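Q: Hi! First time doing this. I have a protein sequence and I read that you can turn it into a structure. Is that right? Here it is:
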Amino acid sequence: MRLFTPLIIILAGSLLLSSCSKTNSNNTDQMNANPLFTPSSLPFETPDFDAIKVHHFRPAFEAGMEQELEEIKEIASNPEAPTFENTIVAMEKSGALLRRTSAVFYNLTSAHTNDQIQEIQKEMAPKLAAHSDNILLNADLYDRVKTLYDKREELDLDEASLKLLEDTHRDFVRAGAQLSEEQKQRMREINEQLSSLTTEFQENLLAITKERAVLVDDVEQLDGLSDDRIAATREAAAERGDEGQYLISITNTTRVPILKELNNRELRKRVWEASAYRGIGQDGGIDNRPLILELVKLRAEKAKLLAYPNHAAYKLDPQTAKTPEAALDMLKDLIPPVIRNTGQEAEAIQKMMRKDGIEGEVRPWDWNYYAEKVRQAEYDIDQSEVRLYFELNRVLQDGVFYTMNKLFGITFEEREDLPVYHPDVRVYNVFDKDGSQIGLFYADYFERDSKRGGAWMNSFVSQSHLLDKKPVIVNVMNIPKPAEGEPALISFDNVTTMFHEMGHAVHGLLSDVKYPSQSGTSVPRDFVEFPSTFEEDWAIQPDVLENYAVHHETGERIPQELLDKVIAARDFNQGFDTQEYLAATMLDMEWHLLGTEDIPGDVQSFEDQALAKYNLDMEAVPPRYKSPYFAHIFSGGYSANYYAYIWSEVLAADAFAYMQQEGGLERENGNRFRQHILSRGGSDEAMELYREYRGQEPEVKHLLERRGLNTSD
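A: Yes, that's right. Below is the predicted 3D structure, encoded as structure tokens:
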């Protein structure tokens, strides 16, 4: 995944046009020349990427902040007594220009950036942080919100409105509205520094992707790769000016997918080390470690100012887990069975290595290569053969879109008349079961140097009845692009990720709420991954698989025998998968359980101690992300929240098991999920929504079953 929402987008809350009466003639000229100053005339106000240029962003940000502060000033200084309409709803309607600009800009910073965009991002980060503080630390505005909050039971509000009021009050308090003026000033300084540091971390990761890419000059070293993969690496090298060589990109996680296929052990080691030793200043490269130490120090200080013992306690307070202790209890319960399963997998891998004449312990660059050999031996399955049945467009149309239609009655129709921010991006109309259009869906699937690693969903426009907005959603991934003229044959992991990100997309597309700040994925971090993880499991359902798993040349459906193996092999290597995830999760937690006096001096030593504390210090199974490139927690909004993926997976596994009990892929089941989960966004407490849908609390056993983990001693 995938979800990235800068704080300012959450706070702005509105796409309503600000009054132009307060702008001078120069500003009026700017508005006429800058397409961001007015809502797009394209369907559903989707951005006009043909008209928007990089130089438009800076003035749009500046004017957007100015306009929103004027609107906030009017709300805060309103001589009339505060009401829900003239305070809370008015805030929901503020910040149109800023929200519109941010929605476009921050998708580009992740999906298609350049030096100019990064320069603007670096410049705007502290300004936007200060702007946020100017709203949330506004004493007069907070007084109005608190007045309403204190008498909330007397206001006769519906559930969504009451929750909006309570959440708004909580946001002010958590921002420091109750602090002294001296403390507020320090809070402003901290937020400005945090904003700059997270931006720098994000920019460094993009630069590191280029810095750590592995160039190969001898094609013989690429033995094991298919011809189309070799051609793609050759084209990638040529695009970077390295004609006649082959480029292996390093993106996202510690393990690199290509390691499964490379027969050359030395090259595997080289690729793994290029990935694992990112961001530590190796060979004079970029060093993210000083940023990490400063970030955790500032976060700890901020939490202390707000009377929390640490950043983790601060971050989990509004989540469904509520406390770090609750999250840790669940995580620690998983560790023993996971370690047992990983140990069993290691023994099988060790035996396979010995068959190849390799003695000694399994090394991290060996694990996935030999795990694939074990998989082939146990399930007689060859991933290169499997890929022949997973052509990207077929997976999208007859797998992902097919499933969404069966569940929710929605259909996707491609259109080519709308501008896009990169030629690889595709656009689809999304229609409901009655033929009415729900919104637009953008698909941006191929990797490129201008895109950060990973996969995610963003909203260009969020659904809201208050503002009469329909959703415009984008899914972004990093699938290796095939050579010119070749089909995009993808791994089954990428297939699953496509279903996952579509889960986020329908959370946004099927939102049916009044207030923009409650739209779609505006839910707790440890709930937002629930609908997306839920959709993953449809990828392996036989009635779905047989619809999209078709040989890209012959058109023949995947043989039942191979299909059965693909499904059975899903549980393979789950000990490794879960352990590397848990290791990263515990790193996240340990960094953010630190108090202001506990900040270490050395990143690597801290990592080693944190992993050993939970018996997760197995050399062959490193954390999914090591700290120097852990984007989720140091630049992506998941600090102390990386546990959310597995917390959400408990819900997803339980919900999927329940739906199977009720008949599986049927419209009635999808409609129930849509009604109780997807359409409600953040309009009610997350776990209350789940209990309404499920009729009971989730059961953890379904998670263990989903991951194929043996829980016996």
